[in-house]
Amino acid sequence: MTTQELKLNIEKALDEIRPFLESDGGNISLISIEDNKIVKVQLEGACVGCSVNQMTLKSGVEMTIKKYAPQIEQVINIS
């Protein structure tokens, strides 16, 4: 998979979870992909400072991204 294909797959994953974040007044942006293994995202809006954002990141975002791009090892939120 090329870097461009990987980025497209990650964007598809984010598009899948974005409606759930938006329903709570938040959003998410892809910041970078490092070594085709680590994805850096930024939670936005109501997601910033939300007490469950780490759980959302691990159980929702990371799981969905890995479904689209299994080679991803970690998703990190840049605050």
From TrEMBL:
Q: Name one GO molecular function term.
A: iron-sulfur cluster binding
The record's listing under Gene3D superfamilies reads: Fe-S cluster assembly (FSCA)
Question: Its Gene Ontology biological processes?
Answer: iron-sulfur cluster assembly
Q: Where is the NIF system FeS cluster assembly NifU C-terminal domain?
A: 10-76
* InterPro entries attached to this UniProt entry: FSCA_dom_sf, NIF_FeS_clus_asmbl_NifU_C
SUPFAM superfamilies hit by this protein: Fe-S cluster assembly (FSCA) domain-like
- One short Pfam name that applies is NifU
Give Gene Ontology CC terms: mitochondrion
Family indicated by similarity: Belongs to the NifU family.
Protein name (Swiss-Prot/TrEMBL): NifU-like domain protein
